[in-house]
Design brief:
Elements: E1 8-10, E2 13-15, H1 19-29, E3 36-37, H2 38-45, H3 54-71, E4 81-84, E5 88-91
Antiparallel strand pairs: 1-2, 3-5, 4-5
Length: 94
Amino acid sequence: MDVPHHEVTVADRPVELTPREFELLKVLLSQPGRVVTAGRLLRAVWGTAYSEESHYLHVYVSRLRRKLAAADPTGAATRLIVAEPGVGYRVVEE
């Protein structure tokens, strides 16, 4: 992930992300291996007015997983973001 240039690549392939998807991935990658609560993700990406809108998170994580997986011929990206039911999400450390 190249934050200053707003670029994401998987296996040297560019991944086109919306600004919200990019922010979501950025927050998750800032805490590799650690659970980021749904509330924290919602506040960081959508703002405090959306801190209870967990359905937003489910939809965007699903889209993000799909886009990352489509760019990865090895299939490893499909397991990058893991749901922690009732808590939030985490990025699996390599």
